[in-house]
Write a structure and sequence with these properties.
4-stranded antiparallel sheet; alpha/beta; disordered N terminus; 8-stranded mixed sheet; elongated
């Protein structure tokens, strides 16, 4: 005797599905959609299942064998779309030929196609990165979330099992066995993706949920719609079912009137299933406007999904210091900084690192009140050995690169490598030439990219290409600083990116130097003295050290990064003679793709150097001259911190590009830069970054609302904004406003606002309720007129911009760090956690900027107010007084 079945009678396919079965399928489909949406939320915001991704993946990678990897590849091939489509076609054809309606027979194929389209759409929307290439056991492309294999196999195997259970199975045990087999096959394929190291656990579970939702919805809808419409007259030999024209006498669903009597609830339940499919589509569409930026911002600000940057280290917390084995004797020869050369084309690849431990150590060492505050490593190589890549991974990577005939050098940070060769060598490896965009006299940098990314063991390509300086075509006259001389170019850029609500620059008379310029300078008795502030005036206003050479100024080590510009030593010496201080020594280190020094005497580079020169007289400034390419910041930052002559007490970066655009295009590059800077924190160095000169809208109208600069908006750097300084006759501060020169005819203002990319770091918890990083951290003089004095090509002029405020502030705090070092105490290190804590305790140590705004583009942000604000940050530090409040290690 035939027993009961899951779907009622074995002839159930010939009659409408029972209301109970349809409701169960609808509930299960809705539950899977909800599960998918919850995991999607976790991917965007962290937590939940995503918090276990790293640990689960590590377990699979650690326990896999070559045999298991081979088996996983076979299983994954079974779960590919092509394999599944073939199986779906064969199953559908068999059922159709046996007499079943095409709608029900085609349900597995329809489920597969719809689920695959949804999965592909989700990958494009979420843009989630896969696990590091170093753990991949097979080559993959596209993005990670959700797993296409898991989605497709769940859709096909579950729908195929349901259709077979409806049409063929006689007994409940057979139906249960079919469904269990379908679920098991989908599970097996999903697990194979974890074994191969190409997906996170959350990718796979979300794929299962998405595919299952489509399988349940499509089968239920097909079953309902095709009832009593079975084609052909052939009998089902296995079940001896009558044709659609000869309904079974023992149909348990009763008469036509009985069926009609429950058509209303069946249709209602069917509507729920349609809603399930709609919800899935809607959930993907809802993420399309924010998914990419949200997932990017979390990844960028934390490096790892396991880190919540807003959580402060616990009082007394001790930084993790992993125990590492000694390096093999020959490993040291693989690590270093290659000399710049225009003959070599260099691409950057990251090594596998423990980002969670790296970030935790930096947080603990930089935050007052922890057990590890200012307990920095004193040796950069030791820090890199502790927190960088493992020796075995480095050796495997180097061996893999050299096996292809290319050269490789491991960066001193041990977080990435430089892979380089001539154009001919790269072509030999790739089988095709590199793509190339030639430079011009105004932009003499050739930009190369890889047509295909070569696979190296343990390495992940950061993207962003390679840049080479072409000195032969350099016109040598590229100026880009915030000055009246560059007003036309600045305003042209502003017009091109203006929003509808932005105001054009006005033409009010420029303010003048209302202080008392010093006598006996090259400006004495000239009209220029009213257009700029002499260094001694700035020193008085900011209560900083006078311009005399001392043992401290000679001992401090400061660094400046410049991308694409050069300088003139004659101008450095000329400015020193003009204002009566001893010129510092400029040590130049050229970056990858640069042979010799960059010829262009650039106003931005000169501003960086001449702004800090009066405050480190007789000292040494390390200048890193790198190319002006997408990946050049990584090269320059690593050279600044990994310099064999010693890492700096402080470094300044005057680089400002749209953070949103960079995060969308070069996420791996941003992560690589972050690792280098964070390792610098662990040795007690500190990086200051100009907040930018485009006000609250660095990205212009390309991004709605406010947009900030990278790297200023990164949470591991100190962002310095801009002010207009007003002096009294004694050269003391009479007032200080937010820098905005739009009223004077130049569309330039200090960078500031709330980041769309980086989350709020722990040190800002007490000053802002925004969930995102606010910049700047503090501000200083950046006005064009009266601004910073600049000697350029032998002529003195006034210039502004946060490229003046950032190196100035860095120099003052680097002197404090050097004084601690000379006294036998640890360096100051990353100042942000200290400054924000100090502000809570002694707000009077920061001049509160309460007037002005930096809104160049009519977006309604940002205006200075009492206390912390996104136009001036904490205000302007009292550099002399804050030194008296430095917490002890």
């Amino acid at each position: 005797m035939t027993g009961p079945t899951v779907f009622g009678d074995p002839l159930a396919a010939e009659a409408p599905p029972s209301r109970r079965v349809l409701i169960v399928m609808a509930v299960l489909a809705a539950a899977n959609v909800l599960l998918f949406m919850l995991i999607a939320e976790d991917v965007l915001n962290g937590g939940g299942l995503v918090s276990h991704d790293q640990a689960v993946l590590a377990w699979f990678v650690d326990h896999r064998t070559q045999g298991l990897i081979h088996a996983a590849k076979v299983v994954s091939t079974l779960g590919s779309f092509v394999s599944l489509a073939i199986m779906a076609g064969l199953l559908g054809g068999w059922l159709w030929r046996r007499g079943w309606h095409l709608g029900l027979a085609a349900a597995p194929l329809v489920s597969l196609v719809l689920a695959s389209l949804a999965s592909t759409t989700a990958k494009a929307i979420f843009g989630r990165a896969r696990p590091p290439v170093s753990v991949h056991a097979e080559h993959v492309s596209l993005k990670a979330f959700p797993s296409g294999h898991a989605t497709d196999t769940a859709a096909f195997f579950l729908s195929a099992a349901l259709v077979l259970a409806i049409t063929v199975a006689h007994r409940r045990s057979a139906q249960v066995a079919l469904i269990a087999t379908g679920i098991g096959l989908a599970a097996l394929v999903g697990l194979s993706r974890l074994v191969l190291g190409v997906h996170w656990l959350s990718d796979v579970v979300a794929g299962w949920a998405l595919g299952s939702a489509f399988a349940l919805a499509v089968v239920a809808i097909s079953w309902q719609l095709t009832t009593h419409h079975r084609v052909g007259t052939a009998k089902n030999e296995a079940l001896d079912l009558p044709t659609a024209h000869d309904p079974p006498d023992d149909c348990p669903h009763g008469s036509a009137s009985a069926v009609a009597s429950r058509s209303r609830p069946v249709k209602a339940t069917l509507g729920v299933l349609v809603l399930v499919v709609s919800l899935t589509t809607a959930s993907l569409a809802a993420c399309s406007s924010s998914g990419s930026s949200n997932s990017a911002r979390l990844s960028q600000s934390t490096l790892s999904k396991q880190i919540d940057p807003s959580i402060a280290p616990a009082p007394g917390a001790v930084a993790p210091v992993p125990v590492v084995s000694p390096d093999p004797p020959d490993l040291a020869s693989e690590i270093g900084l290659p000399s710049g050369s225009a003959d070599q084309i260099t691409f950057y690849f990251t090594l596998p690192t423990d980002d969670v431990t790296l970030v935790k150590a930096a947080e603990d060492m930089a935050t007052p009140g922890t057990g590890s505050y200012r307990h920095f490593f004193t040796n950069y190589a030791d820090a890199a050995r502790t927190y960088g890549a493992k020796a075995a991974d480095i050796e495997a990577a180097v061996k893999s690169v050299r096996a292809k005939g290319l050269s490789v050098t491991v960066d001193p940070s041990r977080t990435f490598v430089r892979v380089f060769g001539t154009a001919e060598q790269w072509q030999k490896v790739l089988g095709k030439p590199l793509t190339m965009q030639e430079g011009t006299p105004d932009a003499p940098f050739d930009v190369y990219d890889l047509p295909t990314v070569p696979r190296f063991d343990k390495l992940t390509y950061v993207g962003a290409g390679a840049t080479v300086y072409d000195a032969a075509i350099d016109a040598g006259n590229r100026q880009s600083g915030a000055s009246t001389a560059n007003a036309a170019a600045i305003n042209g850029r502003a017009r091109a990116s203006a929003n509808a609500g932005s105001a054009p620059p006005a033409s009010a008379p420029w303010p003048v130097n209302t202080g008392t310029p010093p006598a006996n300078t090259c400006l004495s008795g000239t009209s220029l003295a009213t257009t700029m502030y002499a260094p001694s005036q700035i020193a008085t206003a900011y209560d900083t050290r006078a311009l005399q050479e001392t043992a401290l100024t000679k001992a401090v080590r400061v660094s400046v990064i410049d991308l694409g510009g050069g300088f003139s030593d004659a101008d450095i010496q000329g400015a020193a003679r003009c204002f009566g201080y001893v010129a510092p020594t400029i040590e130049v280190q050229t970056g990858d793709g640069v042979s010799g020094n960059i010829r262009n005497n650039n106003d931005e580079t000169e501003l960086d150097l001449q702004t800090m020169a009066p405050y480190v007289p007789g000292g040494t400034i390390q200048l890193v001259e790198a190319t002006n390419g997408p990946a050049s910041l990584l090269d320059a930052t690593s050279r600044m911190l990994g310099d064999p002559a010693g890492f700096p007490d402080g470094g300044s970066i005057s680089y400002a590009q749209c953070a949103v655009q960079e995060s969308q295009g070069d996420l791996a590059l941003i992560h690589a830069v972050a690792r280098v800077i964070i390792l610098g924190i662990i040795v007690g160095s500190s990086v200051f970054v100009a907040a930018g000169d485009w006000g609250s809208t660095t990205c212009g109208n390309d991004v709605k609302g406010t947009s900030q600069s990278f790297a200023a908006s990164a949470p591991w750097a100190t962002a310095v904004g801009g002010t207009r300084l007003i002096l009294n006759a004694a050269n003391q501060r009479a007032d200080e406003l937010v820098w905005n020169d739009q009223a004077y005819g130049v569309a330039a203002a200090g960078g500031g606002g709330v980041s769309k990319v980086f989350q709020r770091p722990w040190y800002q918890n007490e000053v802002t309720t925004s969930k995102m990083r606010a910049v700047p951290d503090f501000a200083a003089l950046a006005d064009i007129t009266p601004g910073w004095p600049l000697m350029l090509n032998g002529q003195m002029q006034s210039i502004g911009g946060t490229s003046g405020s950032s190196p100035f502030a860095m120099a003052k705090l680097a002197l404090l760090s050097a004084s601690e070092r000379l006294a036998g105490r640890p360096r100051v290190g990353f100042v942000n956690p200290w400054f924000y804590q100090l502000y809570q305790q002694h707000p009077e140590l920061f001049y509160d900027v309460v007037s002005g705004n930096n809104d160049l583009n009519g977006v309604g942000c940002c205006t200075a107010a009492k206390g912390f604000d996104e136009a001036s940050g904490l205000g302007v530090p009292d550099f002399a007084e804050i030194a008296q409040h430095l917490p002890s290690p």
